[in-house]
Amino acid sequence: MKIELAALYCVFACSSNVVDAFGVAPTTRLPMVRGGSSSLPMAKTSTEEKKDAKEEEKKKEAPPTNLGWNSHKAVEQIPDSLVRDGESGPEGNYPMRAKFEKMCREAQIKITKAIEEIDGSGVTFQEDCWVRENGGGGLSRVMSGGKVFEKAGVNLSVVYGSMPQEALAAATERGIDRGKGVKPGERVPFFACGLSSVMHPKNPMCPTMHFNYRYFETDGGVWWFGGGTDITPSYVDEDDMKHFHGTYKEVCDKHDPEFYDNFKSWADRYFVIQHRNETRGLGGIFFDDLNDRDPDTIFEFSKESLYSVVDAYGPIINKHKDDAFTDEQKQWQLVRRGRYVEFNLVYDRGTVFGLKTGGRIESILMSLPEQASWLYDFHPEEGTPEGDLIDACKFPRTWV
Question: Looking at 72, 210, 243, 320, which residue is catalytic?
Fold first, then answer.
């Protein structure tokens, strides 16, 4: 079954006896009274009135409890920065927020320019910018209908707000441990800035590529970095994998000799489609909750990793973009894209976080391919190129 994913509706619901699916408290109901009568409330004392006034003042100062699915306002003029000192949100490291956003913006321009040149069709990235009333916003660049790329997107997002503790658990490896001083049931004020991307080429010999690099803060000055770059081919090409993984091993080794082995293994564990018992692709690097050294040191590692995307991925696309392929190979690519969709909608930390915090839907679902396929009970034969990919996805290999 081949589907157009533009028509896919993702129903994401959660329930609680305290809040509804969007994190908003349900309407208060008066208690039912047997016998047709109830006691009227007692008049409040001056002490109680002062306490209530303080509570109301706290509510006014707090970040919004729900960012809102329609809280994004499109703007034609792109702001110089979406990070502004003194905006609503947790107290934190403003210089790092601004520096990380600047780095992401520069990388977004560099990467999209390189992808347009590789595509060579003259098709360019459509750019959309939006802001939120309480601070932050985003800048999306999406290209579709190119010669090489069916769909490619690079999204910048800056978010101020508060989130349910379950959203924080979804956003990090250590979960609600990052909600310093937060009581059970309370929302966690946060700041987040990140650049994320997915590239879906047309040719089944060209792999899909994904990256995400992000910086988080929660109330109380808790901060961490996360991210990574990974590759999802339909066919195994060992030279391609040596190049891709070798590029990131070189980056990692410059910053810490243990980074590559640790982050490669982390990627192999993270990108698992659990209900299939196989990985989404052939890995790369992945890290989260990184705050074990000076933040500027981790920033430089994140920056070099992000700026290495084109060097790691571009030569592979240039090598294969004109390869011949059969209808059967194209069908296999669509089946593997179906697996990609399954992981993103069920397990991906960024997707879950975006949906739980009222993110911009078009940006969240930008990662999905335009076309995918699900064949009933389809299993490739052992010894075939398709079977070799499945083996590599079930038993992660060492490439460098």
Answer: 210
The pLDDT of 130-152, averaged and rounded, is 91
Question: Could you tell me which residues come within 8 angstroms of residue 54 by beta carbon, excluding any fewer than 6 positions away?
Answer: none
Per DSSP, which regions of 133-187 are E strands?
A: 136-144, 149-163
Answer yes or no: 210 catalytic. Answer: yes
Q: Which helix (H) or strand (E) holds 222?
A: strand 222-232
Confidence label for 51 from pLDDT (cuts 50, 70 and 90): low
For residues 115 and 123, the answer to whether their CB atoms sit within 8 Å is no
What six digits make up the tokens of 193? 């800035």
Class of domain 61-394: alpha beta
Round to whole Å and give the CA distance between 155 and 145: 18
* pTM (predicted TM-score): 0.78
CA distance 187 to 177: 13
Nearest 5°: phi and psi at 100? -65, -40
What does the block give as tokens for 350? 């960024």
Name the CA radius of gyration of the chain, rounded: 23
Q: Which of 370, 359, 373 is nearest to 152 (CA)?
A: 370
Show Cβ contacts of residue 131 under 8 Å, excluding neighbours closer than 6 positions: 72, 73, 75, 79, 82, 137
Separation between Cα atoms, residue 90 and residue 178, nearest integer Å:
13
Tokens of 246: 């070798």
Distance CA 44, CA 321 (A): 74
What is the distance between the alpha carbons of residues 61 and 59, in angstroms, rounded to a whole number? 5
The full 3-state SS of 360-398, as one line of letters, equals CHHHHHHHCCCEEECCCCCCCCCCCHHHHHHHHHHCCCC
Amino acid at 395: F
3-state secondary structure of 69: coil
Q: pLDDT digits over 177-229, tens only?
A: 565 566 777 787 888 999 999 999 999 999 999 999 999 988 767 899 999 99
H helix runs in 288-326, sequence order: 295-307, 309-320
Domain ranges for the chain:
61-394
The set of residues, in sequence order, having a beta carbon less than 8 Å from that of 331 and lying 6+ positions away, is 373, 375
* Concatenated DSSP letters of 11-43: ------SSS-TTS-PPPP-PPP-GGG--PPPPP
Strand-pairing partners, residue 28, are none
